[in-house]
Design goal:
Elements lengths: L5 H6 L6 H6 L17 E4 L6 E7 L5 E7 L11 E3 L6 E3 L3 E7 L3 H4 L3 E7 L4 H5 L18 H20 L7
Antiparallel strand pairs: 1-2, 2-3, 4-5, 6-7
Length: about 170
């Protein structure tokens, strides 16, 4: 991923107010991020740990940011393991979180949202590259896809999730 500036990040958010985007805290290591290993920027807000943010650059160069709610620490799960909907990395149940994004525009202001399960640390890019290992009994299964194919799949999945947040109209029957 090409590096993003603070201004690009703050102006990219589609489902929060300009004031909320101005107040969010960037990752603590923002100046030292390994941009060459990232396919999108994802982080838990250090100033508001129940908020997370995802920022992606589309193939056309546009930048889209999504603000998310993180579940509280007392969340219980009957699942022993789960899979991230972006990178398809399998994790122990605590390694995947249900993050909830208010929809963009009027629908979001009316309280509508969409949820999806993603790596709890939002480090999908690092899992894809083997730079971080999931805590999963038996280790990570081997895939026959190349890194480029896995990254493409993850970006397609993130694009589909982004589309759900930014969709401006509910389909009518």
């Amino acid at each position: 991923m090409e590096p993003l500036t603070e201004k690009q990040i703050r102006s990219s958010f589609v489902n929060c107010t300009k004031g909320e985007a101005a107040r969010l805290k960037l990752p603590p290591d923002f100046d030292a991020l390994p941009w060459e290993d990232l396919d999108f920027l994802g982080w838990i807000d250090p100033g508001a740990p129940l908020r997370a943010h995802l920022v992606r650059r589309a193939a056309d160069g546009s930048v889209t940011g999504i603000s998310l709610r993180v579940p509280g620490a007392n969340r219980s799960s009957a699942l022993k393991s789960s899979v991230c909907q972006i990178c398809l990395t399998g994790h122990a149940a605590s390694g995947v979180s249900l993050l909830v994004a208010p929809l963009a525009g009027q629908r979001g202001r009316e309280g509508n949202s969409v949820g999806f399960y993603v790596c709890a640390d939002l480090a999908c890019s690092l899992y894809l590259r083997g730079k971080r290992q999931p805590k999963l009994r038996g280790g990570r299964p081997e895939e026959t896809l190349t890194l480029e194919q896995r990254v493409g799949r993850a970006m397609d999945n993130l694009g589909a999730l982004t589309a759900k947040v930014t969709a401006s109209q509910v389909p009518t029957a």
